[in-house]
Structures are given as C-alpha cells and as structure tokens.
TrEMBL record:
Its main location: membrane. Keywords: Cell membrane, Membrane, Transmembrane, Transmembrane helix, Transport. It comes from the Bacteria. Belongs to the 4-toluene sulfonate uptake permease (TSUP) (TC 2.A.102) family. PANTHER family: MEMBRANE TRANSPORTER PROTEIN, TRANSMEMBRANE PROTEIN YFCA. It is found in: Cell membrane. It holds the Pfam family TauE. This is Probable membrane transporter protein. InterPro entries: TM_pro_TauE-like (IPR002781), TSUP (IPR052017). The chain crosses the membrane at residues 6-33, 45-64, 70-91, 98-116, 131-157, 169-188, 200-218. It is a multi-pass membrane protein.
Length: 242
C-alpha cells in the first residue's frame, strides 16, 4: 500500500483530474499528470492515468446518457479507430516531438484566439457523414501521438458553436472508445505492474467523487462559462505539448 503522503498526493491528483474531466469532458491526464508524472515512472503513471480516465468517461457516459448522439459518435469512432494504428506506426519512424510541438502550437493559438473573440458562432448546416468520420480520423491520429484524442472533435464542435449538451453527447463516447482502444494496445505491448492496480484501487474514491462533482458543475454552468472552460483547457493542453 502507498504511504500516507503518496496516498494524499495520488488522491488529490485523481480528484482534480476527474473533476475537470467531469466538467469539460476531457483533460484528465493534462491535470492529473502534472502530479502523477512526478510521483511515478511513466510506465506506471501512464497506464494509471488511462485507467482512471476510462473510469471518468464511464461515469460521464452514464450521467449524460440521455444526451448521447450515438449516430454521430459512431462515425467519429470509426474514423478514430483507423487513425490510431497509423499514429502507432508513425511513433516508430517519425519525429514525434516535432509533431507534438506543432500540434500544441496550433491548439494553443486556436484557443487563445477564440478566448479573445467576442462573439460565438452558431452551428450551420448539417455536416456530411464522411466529414464527421474524417474529424474522428484526425482525433484518433492526433490522440495516438499526443494522448489527446478529444482535441480535434472538441475544436470542431466549438467552431460550429454547438451547445454544451450536444457537444458532450457527441464527443464523450468517442473519447471513451479511443481510450479503451489505447489501453488495449498498451496492455498488448507490455506487462502492467501490479502496483498500477493497487494505485487504481486506492484512488477510486477520489475518482468517483471528482467525477460526480464535475458532472454536477457541468449541469450548473451556462454555455458561456462552459465554452471558456473548454478553451482554457485546450490552451493549457496545447502549451503542455510545446
């Protein structure tokens, strides 16, 4: 079992990440990772964050089940499942540091610009199914390289001015599917330490408490506050990749 100090820091990191993810739908690893990656080796921290994030996503899906847009989400997921293996192959040959920095700069610039823009556009005409699948492909590709599968779909939803419930209902199942696929690939390529399972077990109370409070906060904030929260998290996530 972890010592008291480790248990407290682990619980704080998981609670903070779960709360932010429950509120915004993403960014668990961006928040929790600031502590967990300093406490544990990457081979322990990354699987732990993936497992915790899947737990948060499961909670989010249950809490938002009436808002889920399954048809659009399935199109995103199909595209994403094509993109992830390509990203895995790129990790073996391409300069991934350059790719991550480039994507981080784009995300950070977009978020900064949109935060400063005074008006919010509204969703236009319906988008073709092939375009939705293409957005999912981009999300899967980028997610495989940066561990941020929700960034591209979230930016796309923001550009179309989608209401918060519609956005979460579309993107949430996609993020959950990409994370399940990613952890399956990870487990297939390496043996997980038993310590990961112990840390996951002791962090469950903080995980579900943070998720529940985050979902409650999501229902209480208005559209403007939600959008600014998402953009700030995109800005922070983009900067973290630079």
């Amino acid at each position: 079992m972890p010592d008291v100090t480790t248990l407290i820091l682990l619980s704080v990191a998981v609670f903070a990440g779960a709360f932010v993810s429950g509120l915004s739908g993403f960014a668990f690893s961006a928040v929790a990772g600031t502590i967990l990656l300093r406490m544990f080796q990457p081979l322990e921290a990354v699987p732990l964050m993936m497992a915790c994030s899947i737990g948060v996503q499961a909670t989010n899906l249950w809490a938002l089940r009436r808002s889920i847009r399954w048809e659009g989400s399935l199109l995103l997921i199909v595209g994403g499942l094509i993109g992830v293996p390509i990203a895995v192959s790129l990790l073996q040959s391409a300069d991934t540091h350059l790719l991550r920095r480039g994507f981080g700069i784009i995300v950070a610039l977009y978020a900064a610009y949109m935060l400063l823009r005074p008006t919010l556009v509204t969703a236009g005409e319906a988008v073709g199914r092939h375009w939705v699948a293409l957005i999912g492909f981009g999300g899967g590709l980028v997610g495989g390289l940066t561990a941020m599968p929700g960034a591209i779909p979230t930016i796309w939803c923001d550009m179309r001015g989608m209401p918060k419930s519609e956005q979460r209902g579309l993107v949430q199942p996609f993020i959950a599917a990409m994370q399940l696929f990613a952890i399956a690939l990870l487990v297939g390529h390496q043996d997980l330490s038993s310590k990961v399972f112990v840390d996951l077990a002791v962090s469950l109370p903080a995980l579900f408490a943070g998720s529940a409070l985050g979902v409650i906060a999501f229902h209480r904030v208005n559209e403007t506050v939600f959008r600014k929260t998402v953009l700030v998290l995109l800005l922070v996530s983009g900067i973290s990749l630079i």
